[in-house]
């Protein structure tokens, strides 16, 4: 939800210290990192060089790959276990051949390195949007000092972002008025939604912005321009 990345290096170290007999197994969901992180989009585990430390990796065919479905990368033993005991897996409908062809095409783009420039552009956009949001937050904080209306949220409460730039293209923008802020963004052409309890705890209401490689810097810097995030 926050767009942060699990501290996998620390988790692996803790797992080895705790399970000294080697009976600790790590499962990593790479849904949001597939296509965006690692060499040729192989994911965050590959980027950190932890392939030999992870028992199961889940890679989606959706999101960055723009298809549907997912795959588990695991050992033959785990594969046989899932085939025999994972009822939802066994009774899942077989994927259509057009879907498989689309997945193959997406992976061919990754393997050929055609997406590496897009991934680099996405990281640049992450920094640009974060800088823009911080600047807006500072202006709102300045306006808070002059706010007099006690019945309405003060300007500084309308938008709060972490000062640390996120590594992923998912931004959580905390807000006392997430639905109003989302509606304003939608009128400006931004496809965002307000997220409220019980999806998030009370006091952690927010809007969630997801960048994609097709965005441009002008779209980020000019909210009035019709854009899609």
Question: Could you provide a short overview of the structure?
Answer:
The chain has 8 helices and 6 strands; from the N terminus they run αβαββααααβαββα. It has 229 residues and is of the alpha+beta class.
Protein architecture, described:
The structure is a single chain. With 229 residues, this protein is of the alpha+beta class. Helices cover 38% and strands 11% of the residues. The chain has eight helices and six strands, in the order H-E-H-E-E-H-H-H-H-E-H-E-E-H. Helix 2 (44-47) links the parallel strand 1 (27-29) and strand 2. It is globular. The chain starts with 7 loop residues before the first helix and ends in an 8-residue tail after the last helix. Pfam families: Aminotran_1_2. Keywords: Pyridoxal phosphate, Transferase. Its cofactor is pyridoxal 5'-phosphate.
Number of helices in the DSSP assignment: 8
Total number of β-strand segments? 6
Order of helices and strands: HEHEEHHHHEHEEH
Percentage of residues assigned to helices: 25-40%
> How many domain modules?
2
At CATH level 2, the architecture of the largest domain is 3-Layer(aba) Sandwich
Strand-pairing-aware structural class: alpha+beta
Cofactor: pyridoxal 5'-phosphate
Organism: Hortaea werneckii
Family: Belongs to the class-II pyridoxal-phosphate-dependent aminotransferase family. BioF subfamily.
Protein name: Aminotransferase class I/classII large domain-containing protein
